[in-house]
Amino acid sequence: MSTQTLQPTAPAPRTFGAPVLEASGVVMRFGGLTAVNDVNLTVREGEIMGLIGPNGAGKTTFFNCLTGMYKPTEGEVKFLGTVLPPKPRSVVKAGMARTFQNIRLFGNMTALENVMVGRYCRTNAMALTSIIRGPKYRREEAESRRIAQEWLDFVGLGHTSEHLARNLPYGDQRRLEIARALATDPRLILLDEPTAGMNPKETEQAKDLIFRIRDKGLAVVVIEHDMRFIFSLCDRVHCLVRGETLIEGSPQEVQSDHRVIEAYIGQPDEDEEEMVAEAHAQDEAAPSTPAATDGRMKEDRA
Ligand SMILES: Nc1ncnc2c1ncn2[C@@H]1O[C@H](COP(=O)(O)OP(=O)(O)OP(=O)(O)O)[C@@H](O)[C@H]1O
Ligand SMILES: [Mg+2]
Fold first, then answer.
1. Which one is the CATH code of 1-95+186-302: 3.40.50.300, 3.90.220.20, 3.10.20.310, 1.25.40.10?
2. Ligand 1 pocket, 46 CB below 6 A?
């Protein structure tokens, strides 16, 4: 890979608010396998944090520890200064929302209904009121519908409100998941590979969407394998390798750290080093051309 593929459009240095998320010493073991080992991560208000690392590095497992899907074997996760019970529902109610690496939508429900599901943690209607369907229930449902439509519009899917989720193109399903997460009124949103399966135009739109989410005052943590996307989007980048932190820093610091590149493509042997040096010499001799790859540093997986 040429270093050219990693050149970022450096975001201007920005200042951030108070810490929203503080994970310290997080360890997650599955039997003999330590998937996450002593990871610390602080994310501040208005910050976009990238979480990168090769396949199996522990990124999704770490998200699961942050969002109450797993109780970490060791360590602590504080959200807005409080350690939350390790239950996804409590975590969502506290203001942390997420999307999934493998899309989890209700395929036979419409796009609007999927987003309305996100509102349920913010409504007061109890089981009994929803059975009786009295005026309070109807008011809340109308309000949920209005807010859900606003979030659909926000992610650019306003025109699909009556479409069944399973009939939407893949890229739209990913945006629908983001709309559902936003409908829970989060302070922090965690996105697990939001551009997987997207074409370059959709990926650009996803980047713009994440900036707009940040501009609403949310903190964002985003897992991605597309390095060009990550380095042009994030304020800071945290790299995990085999469950451990390799480096955390600005996009410039992380992308110029040779250990990050080695972690993805392995350490070159002597022959490869010669080939790389030769390729660089040719690169320097030739006029620069746009990168041929889409910047993804990942095996393609279904
Ligand atoms: N529930 C589980 N039980 C046992 N092992 C697990 C479990 N979940 C994850 N693992 C293992 O933990 C390690 C980290 O997996 P994880 O899915 O977190 O990686 P990742 O960084 O998200 O990878 P990818 O980029 O491929 O999505 C892997 O070795 C995986 O097999
Ligand atoms: Mg993963």
1. 3.40.50.300
2. no
Calpha distance 238→49 (Å, rounded):
7
What would the mean pLDDT of 153-174 be, rounded to a whole number?
96
Domain layout of the chain by residue ranges: 1-95+186-302, 107-184
Please check whether residue 104 is in contact with residue 174, taking contact to mean a CB–CB distance below 8 angstroms: no
Question: Across the chain, what does the average pLDDT equal?
Answer: 86
Distant-in-sequence, close-in-space partners of 187: CB < 8 Å, separation ≥ 6: 20, 45, 80, 95, 96, 217, 218, 219
Element (H, E) at 21: strand 19-30
With bands split at pLDDT 50, 70 and 90, how would you rate the model's confidence at 250?
A: very high
Does 10 sit in the ligand 1 pocket, CB within 6 Å? Answer: no
pLDDT confidence of residue 220 = 98
Q: Is the pTM of this model over 0.90?
A: no
Closest atom of ligand 1 to CA, residue 70: 1
Instruction: Determine the average pLDDT of the residues in 70-89.
Output: 94
Q: What stretch of H or E contains 238?
A: strand 236-241
Which ligand is closest to the CA of 36, given by its number? 1
Give the position, in ligand 1's atom list, of the atom nearest the Cα of 301: 26
